[in-house]
Amino acid sequence: MKLKITSILLLAVIASFSFSAFTLKEDVYKVDVTKSTVTWEGKKFAGSHKGTVALTSGNLNFNGKKLTQGGFVANMTTIKDGDNNGGLEKHLKSEDFFGVEKFPAANFVIKKVEGSGANVNVTGDLTIKSVTTSITFPATLVWNADKTVTATADKITVDRTKYGIQFKSKSVFANIGDNFIYDEFTLSVKLVAAK
């Protein structure tokens, strides 16, 4: 009986070792921040503004060609307005919006990827001003001839009020009239990554 139990335990250990030995290792692709871009667009009643923010770092993990996890960090001190309006950039960096002195970074972490091939749906945690909420958006993956991969999300919708950014929000200040800024802004992200 003792020999039988020992044999079963030994078999279980060998089986678990064999399984772990053949588990596929994920490939980590590092995001090239010089070739990657994040652009934003915010709208108000009387128009809109577009601009950019630079990335600090990022990575994409793949099991074969299936995206499994990853994310990126944005340097919020680099917010630029496409119209080169220095006053707007200063205001976006202030406490009314992103408070970059206290919160110099924002980040996104992939939690789930649905679909396979070039078109996937990504769900992850977006953290702005130390507040984290889950967002889901479609993304496209392209494997390039130089063995890099490009991940693109053309329109990620973000509700700024979920991160405590309430400046001129009509949903917060009901009597603001036409002098409001829409709660939602959009991000367009292109990540170019190499193994």
Automatic annotation (TrEMBL):
SMART domains: YceI. It comes from the Bacteria. Residues 1-21 form the signal peptide. Keywords: Signal. Pfam families: YceI. InterPro entries: Lipid/polyisoprenoid-bd_YceI, TTHA0802/YceI-like_sf. Residues 28-194 form the Lipid/polyisoprenoid-binding YceI-like domain. PANTHER family: PROTEIN YCEI (PTHR34406:SF1). This is YceI family protein. It comes from Pedobacter planticolens.
